[in-house]
Amino acid sequence: MLKTGQQMSQKQSQQQRLSPQQIQYIKLLQLPTLALEQRVEEELEMNPVLEEAEPEDQVDQQEELNPGEEWEDKNKEDVDPVDQNEDIDWDEFMHNTEYDGNDYSSSYSGSSGNEDWRDLPDPYHESLLEELEQQVGLLDLDEEEEMIADQILGSLDEDGYFRRETEAVVDNIAFNKGVLISEEDVERVRKQIQQLDPPGIASKDLKDCLIVQLEMMDEGVTGRDTALEMLKKHWKSFEKKHFGKLKKKLDVDDEGLQDAFECIKGLDPKPGGSGNVVDDTKNYIEPDFEVRYEPGETVNGEDAGEGDFIIKLNDRNVPPLRISPRYKKMWDDLKKKKNSNPEAKETKDFIKNKIDSAQWFIDSIRQRQNTLMNTMKTIVALQEDFFKHGEGLKPMILKDIAERVNLDISTISRVVNGKYVQTSFGVFELKYFFSEGIETESGEEVSSTEVKNIVQEIVDNEDKQNPLSDQAIADKLKDKGYKVARRTVSKYREQLNIPVARLRKQIM
């Protein structure tokens, strides 16, 4: 018998929900240094209770880690958020909620020491689009041609190419401006724009871009005419580097073909640069950490292994934070009045909410710094050889760090993502230090990053006239004691942005 109707039942289940403080901490954790500076500025603007602390008595400190030593968090005390009770121990509260931006040293060797310069605005630089608009303004164009030029410039891709269909420009101008133009009109204006600086801008494809630049080149340049003929008539052979066919078709010897290729190598395949068409400002990497090794005593001219790692967290532009004393006084005055009218209650609630928010933010910043330092120190402890000598990277995965600092793998992933460290051997993204292990023939486990470096070295030193196939590279790795399959070599080669052997072939 089929039963219909509604039934009520109870079910007990557990769900884990993140508190607002935890969400804020997670968001701050994944921010790199420059983004953190902006986030702190935003919070200072939004919350009047939060303010910069006075920079008095701030002393630069630095954390030292002896090889193999585990770091003890000196700021590990947990500060509970303001509870619902109006009685607040302000002496303790003010002490615990101040965040001193110099708890983790931000001094960098080589800095000028004059932080006032950092407050100066960056000089204004015209974007490439603005420069092109000015150049177009100097062309002898009528009103319709100016509309076409505006459409072309507005359609340029990041690399400076015009990949939009010509017919789409015709339709757009007809629909929005009510002016009928032809595709020939669009092409005529586009070719004029191609002659502007940088040459080749607004090209349809790579072939078009290179040909324009060659045509603008002085006729006396060695290899120019051969290069033009090669690109115009034998593009596919050029792309595939079929040198034998090209010499026969162009009726040139090795030297003549070499001159043509050298001429083409001097051209710019991306006249718009890397995303500079709209914005010509440059993105700079601001290292989040600095790590250097200071050797101890030496025995027979070699480090005895008793040196120290100096690890610094870069937060020099993150100001020390505190709860505003002015709002503390305001809170005390409201408490003394014992006024229960709606306005007074609303004011109390406002101040209390802002105090909660400010304290959570300060605690999240402090917790972020602790987590970052714990993670960086653990990475250094596991990769001592690299930070000492710049080589000898060991296999290491996120789980290795997570287990040692007692944090979730996802938390370590957020710490690592987008963060950089300044070392004596250059600037590295933290992701660089994580890699799977590959076993050598002797049974030793090495980092896949080290194997990639060897692949790069093999390719750099190969015979450019007869570049090595992936299998040949795998064989050379085997000779060096690394058991790597051909498909693994192919994967590493692609990750290193190394073309296949055919495209690496050169004329000597």
From TrEMBL:
Domain of life: Bacteria
Biased composition (Low complexity): 102-114
Family as reported in the entry's similarity comment: Belongs to the sigma-54 factor family.
Protein name: RNA polymerase factor sigma-54
Residue ranges occupied by any RNA polymerase sigma factor 54 core-binding domain in the UniProt entry: 125-327
GO biological process entries: DNA-templated transcription initiation
Pfam families, alphabetized: Sigma54_AID (PF00309), Sigma54_CBD (PF04963), Sigma54_DBD (PF04552)
Skewed-composition ranges (Acidic residues): 45-72
Segments of this protein annotated with the region Disordered: 1-20, 45-83, 96-115
